[in-house]
Every structure is written in C-alpha cells, then in structure tokens.
Amino acid sequence: MVMAAAAPMAVVVALMPMAFAFGNGTGVPAVYLGAAIAILLFAIGYVRIIPYVRNAGAFYAYISASFGKTCGLAAAYIAAISYFLLCASTVGALAFFEGELFERATGVAVRWELWAALAIGAIAYLSYRRITVAAKVLSVALVAEVALLSALDLAIVHSQGWGMFTLKPFAPSIVLSPGLGIAAIYGFNGLIGVEGTAIYQEEARDRERTIPRATYLSVVAIGSFYVITGWCLVVGVGAGNDISTIARSDPGRFIVGQITHYLGTSAAFILSFLVVTSAFASALALFNNAARYLYALARDGVLPRPLARTHPRHQSPHVACALLSLILLAVFVMSSIARLDPLLNVSTALAGVGSVGLMALLATTALGIPVFFARRGIWDIRATLAPAIGGLIIAIATLLAVQNYSAITGVASKAINNLPVGLVAIALIGIGQALWLLKHRPSTFNGIGSNRVDQ
Questions:
Q1: Domains in the chain, start-ordered, CATH in brackets?
Q2: How much is the pLDDT for 455?
Q3: What is the tally of helices (H) and strands (E) in the chain?
C-alpha cells in the first residue's frame, strides 16, 4: 500500500523529468538520495513511537501525543484533506491518460467523464472489500511498473557500460547548483506516503514485527529505486548531452523517448498502459488513507459516529469509504459541469496543495517524536536524534516547496498557486473545534488522538 501510494512509475514518468528540467539537472539522483535519507531518519523515530500510540490516524495521533490534542485535530483535518485532494488529483490524471491510451489503441475517443466514473467505481469497490484485496491488486501493478523501469535501467547499463557510472552526480558542486530547491520538491514528493504503515496497523497481523519491517523496506526500496533510475537516466542521455536541456525540451515525453530508444516502441506502449495502472494504484492507496482518517476521527468522537463503523466481514471502514466515494464523484460531476480539463485544471490544482499538506505534517510529526520521548525521559538516537534531524531536513524542503509552489503546479495562475493558504484555514477550523470541545465536551476532547494509546 505504501509503495503503491508512492506510484514509482508516475513519479519517474511525470515528476523526475521536471526535476531534471527545472531543478539541478545532473544532481537529481543525489537529491533523491538525500530525501530518502531524511525520510529514513524520520522512519527510525516513527517505528519507535508506533508501539506507544496505536491509532489508524497516524499523523493525527502522534502529533496529538507530542504537541497536544488541539494541534492533533488540526493535523488530522489537514491529513484527511491532503490525502483526498491527492486522490482526486490522481483520478483526474488517470481519466485523461485512460482516454488517451484507449484512443491510441482503438481509434475511438471517449469522454473523460466515463473514465473518471469507472475509476471511482473501482476504487469504491476495492476500498469496501478487505484491505488485503486492494493490496493484491496494487501489488500486481507495482511489480509490473518496477519491472519495466528496471528493464530500462539494465538496458542503459548494457548500452553505456559500467565505466560511465561515475560519482559526478553526487559531487557537491553539482548537487548545490541552481535549482536544488525545486529538485528537492520533486524528491520528497516521490517519497510521501510512508505514514501508511501505521495507518493500517490495526488491520495488520503481528503488527509489532510487520509494521517496522514494512516501514523500513518501503523507504529503502523506493528511495534506492529512484536513485538508481535517476543515475541511469543521467548516463542514458550520453556524456556529451545536458540532461537538463533535453528534459526541458519536452518533460512529458522524456521517459517515453528513453524507453523507445533503449527498449523499442512496444515497450513505450506498455509504458503508457502502466502509467494508467500506476495512477490507479496510487489513487486507491490515497483514498484508503483518507477513509481511515475519517474512521479514526469518528471513533474518537470528533466526527459523526457512523463513520467509525467497520464491515462485519471485511473489517473495512465501509461507511467512510462510501462517503468519500460520493464526494469524489461530486468533485468530477462539478468539474464536468464547469468544463474543466481533468489534467490541466483538476489534477494540477489539487496535486500541489495535497503534497505541501503532507510534507508539512511529515515534518511536524518527525519533530514531535523527540518531544514525545523527551517527556518520558527517553533520550537515544532512535527516539530523539534521528527523527529530529530528519524533521529539520523535511521542514526545510517544505519551506522550499511553498516558496517554489508554481514549480509543483506548473501553472502561473495566482488562484491555484495560493491554494496552500487553504491549509491554514483548515488547521484553524480544527483548532477552533478542539477549543470548543475542550469547553463544552471535555470528555470528547480528552479522546482526541488517544484511542488505543499505551501510556
């Protein structure tokens, strides 16, 4: 679920070329390495705190336990909204690419609304079922997309030779060149979603063993994959070519061009198909994350209790999933009525704000873990030092993302590029509700983020 939410195919095809084009060019592999190290440092503390705070709303529960319930409720709303917006953004892109792929294969053009409706229906059905069903579907898509990109990496190694793989992309002079901030945005954007291991802990078997293993494996596997693929792409364009210039000329077709050159046109068509499956896998994982936040908030008494119901056989939060399915459908019905483009308007507008929201929460959680353990008199590398360093790095990346927000959205619209302000409004709503509960319903306030907490 975590690796599917990261959507490695979509990241390599859509985000990595943007990092090459507008970031620090040849230094991009090192940026992904730095991002992976920062997330791994966070994960060390994250795994340490999981046994203490067991709650399906992971960021929400950990921030509540570290900085107080008022901050925790604000974080919960930002997390739920961010995951939902990223899901809607991905569905918009999915509808566009499904239509494009179908027309290329059959010559028949079908309106994007049909593809969006089919995607929402499939997401709703798989989310209603037991989480292992969704995980199996996502695993197939994940293996296929990683296999194709690994084939590209191997083809580049075979063609260029090991001698071309120097440490130049990791040299400080290259990494610190202009565009580092923009590259960092895309580097961290491809690694968000690690929280998923704790979100599903209540549905996992032998959680004390499997959750830490899944967390470390996800970060190391995804991070290594991005670093290796980025390094191969730098070598693949040839020693005499500037990868930044080549990627900037047509970022959308950069990876297609590399696949066609090294693996042939048939592989390029398979790539187009796997971009669709990768986007669907990501949308499904993000949707499930959002649904479990509604479930956690309802179980703690903050949202209506029916949202906390689980299916008697599938154990899924089926009421929360049904509500989000209807909201997701409404988003695209309104988009159709407003004649918005699913890729250029819907996907672009929603992707950036969701990413910034999750990056901010990741940084806050990482910095909160040392506070949590310090209050309990626990001082060691795993509990305090590692997450503190990781949190500071992620916080810097979040500030860079806000400063270079238009690089995420890819548009010059002031309305779209000011959407992160909405996250502040959402946080204030959460803070206001928490303060109201403290005054009028103290028992409910005391339950915020504390469900299944081991003191």
A1: 2-446 (1.20.1740.10)
A2: 39
A3: 22, 0
